[in-house]
Amino acid sequence: MIKRPFGSVAICIAAGLVIDAVAIEAVFAQEAAQSVDAARRNVLDTVIVSASRERELLSETPASIGVIGEAAVRRAGATHPQQILSQVPGVAVSVTNGEGHTTAIRQPFTTSPLYLFLEDGLPIRATGFFNHNALYELDLPMAGGIEVTRGPGSALYGSDAVGGIVNMLTRAPAPMAGLGGSLDAGSHGWRRLMLEADTGEGAWGSLRGGANLTRSDGWRHYTGYERKSVDLRWDLTTRSGVHLKTLLAAGHIDQDTGANSPLIYNDYRNDPTRNNFPIAYRKVEALRLSMAIEKELGNGLLSITPYVRDNRMELLASFSLSYDPTLYETANRSYGALFKWRQDFPAFMRARLIGGLDVDISPGERKENRLDVIATGSGASRVFSDYRVGARIYDYDVTFRAYSPYLQGEISPLERLRVTLGIRYDALSYDLDNKLAGTSVQGAATSFYGQTPDTTVDYDHVSPKIGATYALSDRMSIYASYNTGFRVPSESQLFRPSVAANAADAAARALLAMNLKPITATQFEIGWRGKFDRWSLDLTAFDLVKRDDLVSQRDIATNLTTNVNAGKTSHRGLEAGMGVELSPSVRLDSALSYARHEYRNWVTAAADFSGNDIEAAPRVLGNTRLSWNSAAGVDMQLEWIHVDDYWLEASNASSFPKYGGHDLFNVRAHWQATPSVALFGRIYNIADTRYADSAQISSGTPVYSPGLPRTYFAGVDVLW
Fold this sequence. Notes:
22-stranded antiparallel β-barrel
């Protein structure tokens, strides 16, 4: 197995040296001329919006929220969400293909819909059409900031906010007109051009536009990737004091998805560019348009945000080629609005009341065909080289609707104490119109697919939360909270049951899928924040329990998957962070978490896994960065990323080895050659370590998806 160059003992010694990502904006991403004192002031005085949909101080927020500022985003120049989000304690992202990913926020690495992805507080997809890769629909390298809430957030945002929330903040238009661009190239045919332009403030407000054109050949065979995306933001304040913020974002992604092709151990070590799924691909189209309309009325604020979304995907999935090869197209359009009223009562214990209503109507569709594939080899080494499109197995329209009122109150009964209470009610439904008749259709000789007749499925849920912060001094504060989360089944889990060997089983699976119910989560959390002369510290402890957990259970011999409300899981851990000013020009920052992810009550037809560790759940995650900023405009950063070992399957059987974990080292450099020209370079995995982005059991065999080898990038930033 893989040997780590540094053991977990060294990581645990560093456990006290971890920083909540609220200091990230003050770490490597400072402009060379920005003072370290200003960086320290950002730690507790950071203003966030994700906790209440309103601007408020992090120091008065009873939640673990990591903030990555715009300057940090620009300097990171991430080519994948993994390269920026891992700087937040308790957050890890694994590469699947292109910008595809699996995410771990207080959860194991998973493709389950346990996270909510937002753009300026607006979900980028409807609940019923979640995709675990959906972060690639956001242009993270051109973000104006990123806020990551760890743990449930359903009391404010509704379904899907179970493990965490990622809220990308858009870049505000600059007050002065200007143009900017970034051009970089690198290993494996990587090239990217990012452009942005600002009109400056005028009679019609201010407008900012950005574009991202990216291509890569991929480092493994048949793993090319292309991205084209644009975004516009128009800010206008009228003479009557109405503020308008209009956002338009559109993106196209075309990628070969075999980049995550798992390999048996010998190929993983000796032939990592091999791709067993060269026919797999994914094409994505995304469009979002919204207008936030806000008006201050005395001590109140009225906000209305109408929006439309359009998401389309064509997918030949690599993960199901061995047991259920299909080609499908999904699409959904969304029409909705966020209504919000905020009322402040400054004379009465600084009280604040926020109430609102979220409305989402999202019609969608699925068209899916069985594939006749051409393959050679057997088991986990089987290679899928070609295919023919076969019978239509699913063809339906489905409309998702959500009506969700919420109310949140904040009050300070003592000068140093801030108490927050909130509650939300979600009424959700699906209306299905199935274009195929009968209880099942046959896709291949022994492959049958259950069909659900036209129907309506309804869910409703109440989500409360309570929290408090207390300022121990001007430099320290503590907080505690109780939060809840839930997630309703997605359209595919309800109306697209797994393949069966005969017509009767297929029809039965379709009926069972209709009985799926939401998973629920509860979390208790306590934390301590401190900011001192030369260092800052953030500590958090959490206990998160999920019930009626909806999981795709996979038979490791046949690779067959079924969805069941299978039981109860526990997720407990510590997250910590620290930033230390070692000298006026050198900083050390680290983000670390230790967590146990456990099956508490998990009995399936195969076995009783209760008490076992959940697979793909490393206990220790770490990200440490040593940054040097010189007066000559040269910045450098050395980054160490640690992912601990983990089990490959739910039984924790000694017959299957654990994945041994890995340690990666990256380096970034930036030189501000002139006020308008900067040069930069980045090297990822400088030790050229062989590691796995994911590891599992397939056809009874351990398999590993090799991660990026040593990779170089260089480029130039220009401002006019």
